[in-house]
Design brief:
With 440 residues, the protein is an all-alpha fold. 82% of the residues lie in helices and 0% in strands. It is globular and about 60 Å long.
């Protein structure tokens, strides 16, 4: 109920703040058809991939019987495969022969294959194979999709476009998590049907790419080979510094996505604390308080911070992440109001996530030359690959330990945000120096 009230309050405040129709057009990019098509595609894609990431730990630890550490390792391997997926996806997305559309099609096809493999998986080696394919699929998708959004937006409104993408992502993940819980219940916990459903969704996304999504890669007089493009990006000191800060952000997102549901299910009495009793309860709480609140709050937050320096917005998101992890520690250590502190932790982490995502993507678009957007997105996206390797691996290890280790793990994560703040300040100084050189 608390989450629903928060969602309603934020939505009401946002809609009341839009005084005339032109505000709606500015806030929602209503005149940009490709933004809405890409948003629909992202939502559809995230129904499947979000469901997979959410249910892999719960299904393969609590139903198949693998250890949390081994499942975390397999998800970490998926992220390592994502490194190759982002780099190869960036090369394909910038290539005149392939471009954004073909790369998205390859991502969808790999997603279908991942779902089929997961449907028959009962052992760790098979889970690792599925994880490798998933990493490639995710890498292809994000590199091509983000480059396509940059192609069709202006710099001043780009963070709002990425905010719409984030809303679509949250809506898709929310539908996937809730729908997966319902499907598992109907199918008597048979996870094979869950993953076969994911395959059908990826197939629908593939059809949508072929029918509705346009090729947005822009032909320029400047051309680089893929290796040259990556070298240019890797020599950009500001980009590399920004990636270092983003590794922490993405690790936090990965922890909330993969580890917090398992923590709530197995360690928090007010929510579950038994392996099989509360999958639906955890999924519902996670969906409303993290995904649902994030979806509703995304556009208001993007609009509210429009006038702020984008690096400072990320610093605010970093501080909110610290608060969220401290609340997770409070949830585990104190029995009083345990359910509500868990709700508060998810809500704070939701706000931190949606504050971070659109402004981080907009900063990358500022750094990227027009003809190297795929390469810059590919290089910057390595923070997601690294974060989704570190998050599940560290979180899975912590969840295999005693309750005291699992609880105090969140305090250590909260303390790490101080490093992120220092790196963001260094990035801000580098950007100021670059602007001075360009102006002088």
């Amino acid at each position: 109920m608390g989450c629903l009230l928060a969602v309603g309050a934020i939505a009401s405040a946002y809609f009341m703040s839009l005084e005339n129709p032109s505000d709606w057009s500015t806030a929602l990019q209503l005149d940009n058809r490709q933004i809405w098509i890409q948003a629909a595609g992202r939502s559809l894609c995230q129904v499947a991939s979000g469901l997979i990431y959410f249910y892999i730990p719960l299904v393969f630890v609590n139903q198949v019987g693998l250890s949390a550490t081994s499942v975390g390792l397999s998800m970490g391997i998926s992220s390592l495969a994502g490194i190759a997926g982002h780099l190869l996806g960036g090369a394909l997305a910038d290539s005149p022969r392939f471009g954004r559309k073909t790369t998205l099609s390859l991502s969808a096809g790999l997603g279908v294959l991942v779902s089929l493999v997961l449907a028959v998986t009962q052992t760790l080696p098979m889970l690792i194979v599925a994880s490798l394919l998933l990493g490639l699929s995710v890498g292809f998708y994000w590199t091509a999709a983000d480059a396509a959004v940059m192609d069709v937006t202006l710099p001043e409104s780009r963070h709002q476009a990425f905010a719409i993408m984030s809303v679509a992502e949250n809506v898709g993940v929310g539908i996937g998590v809730l729908g997966g819980g319902v499907l598992l219940t109907i199918a008597n916990q048979r996870h094979e049907l869950l993953f076969l459903g994911c395959g059908l969704i990826f197939l629908a996304f593939l059809i949508m790419v072929q029918i509705a999504i346009a090729e947005t890669r822009q032909v320029t007089t400047k051309s680089h080979t893929p290796i040259q493009g990556f070298l240019v990006a890797l020599q950009d000191k500001a980009l590399i510094t920004f990636i270092l800060a983003n590794v922490l952000f993405t690790t936090y997102v990965a922890l909330v996505t993969s580890t917090v549901p398992l923590y709530f299910t197995n360690f928090i009495p007010a929510i579950g604390a038994t392996p099989n009793a509360s999958l639906a309860d955890t999924a519902s709480l996670y969906t409303w308080c993290y995904i649902g609140l994030g979806a509703v709050a995304q556009l208001p937050i993007a609009q509210a911070f429009t006038a702020f320096p984008r690096t400072r917005v990320l610093m605010i998101a970093m501080l909110m992440s610290s608060l969220g992890f401290c609340l997770l520690w409070v949830t585990g250590r104190f029995a009083t109001y345990q359910y509500w502190t868990g709700v508060a932790a998810l809500c704070v982490m939701a706000i931190a996530s949606v504050t971070y995502k659109p402004f981080a993507a907009a900063i990358v678009s500022e750094l990227a030359p027009e003809n190297l957007r795929g390469a810059y997105v590919a290089v910057s996206s390595q923070c997601w690959a690294i974060g989704y390797f570190m998050g599940p691996l560290l979180g899975g290890w912590a969840m295999d330990q005693s309750a005291i280790v699992a609880h105090n793990f969140w305090l250590v994560v909260a303390a790490s945000t101080s490093i992120g703040l220092l790196v963001l300040r260094l990035f801000e100084a580098q950007r100021e120096e670059q602007r001075s050189i360009e102006a002088g």
